[in-house]
Specification:
About 70% of the residues lie in helices and about 0% in strands. By secondary structure, the chain is mainly α.
């Protein structure tokens, strides 16, 4: 066992433990921080596989954007953690079965793709970013376009759900704001001057 294999097993163990903490942590903040650790260790494993572009993308996109958004939402909203964790043990068997099926499928897919693949020796000028782009736009162009369409539909659906008109929400029409005049906002009222209360009381007593 060489040094690279030892480092891989160390990162893999950290990744599994942090992923388990994402699910089992009592605090949402701790779960989000464990997710950050899982992303960093996954990026380190990709660096060991010489996939530098994927590792940097994982750190920038998921750690720098998605996880920060998770932390912002969790720290802004007031979640009832105890109420959310009430059905944890009740749904745990179904979750373990579903997770086992997904893990078995991933093992089968990876085994069928790597059993008959011989290791390749790349030259100094090899770029995995260029190779990834070539695969995406040649062999996997239709799944890539399908994923892009699904993401576009999800963006449109999110915008439609956010911008729908509600009866209990007040809206401001910019056209009405532009048409407003000074006479509509300000009115001068002529009122007679009032006498001081003390003077009026003395006059009444006299």
């Amino acid at each position: 066992m060489n040094f690279e294999t030892v480092i891989f097993y160390i990162f893999a163990a950290i990744l599994l433990l942090s992923a388990a903490r994402v699910v089992t942590a009592k605090s949402p903040i701790h779960a989000a921080l464990s997710l950050v650790l899982a992303f960093f260790t996954a990026a380190a494993i990709w660096l060991l596989l010489e996939a530098e572009f994927l590792a940097i993308t994982l750190v920038l996109v998921y750690v720098g954007a998605v996880t920060v958004l998770f932390l912002f939402v969790v720290m802004t909203l007031d979640f009832n953690v105890e109420k959310m964790r009430q059905g944890f043990w009740r749904h745990l068997p179904a979750a373990l079965v579903a997770g086992g099926i997904m893990a078995a499928e991933m093992v089968l897919v990876l085994r069928t793709r790597t059993d008959n693949v011989a290791p390749r020796n790349f030259d100094v000028h090899y770029s995995n970013t260029k190779e990834l782009g070539r695969l995406l736009y040649t062999d996997y162009v239709y799944p890539f376009e399908l994923a892009a369409v699904l993401l576009l539909v999800a963006i449109i659906a999110a915008i439609a759900l956010t911008l729908r008109r509600r009866k209990d929400t007040k809206y401001i029409d910019p056209a009405d704001q532009v048409k407003v005049r000074r006479e509509d906002r300000l009115r001068l009222v002529s009122m007679p001057a009032e006498k001081p209360a003390r003077a009026a009381a003395e006059k009444t007593e006299g």
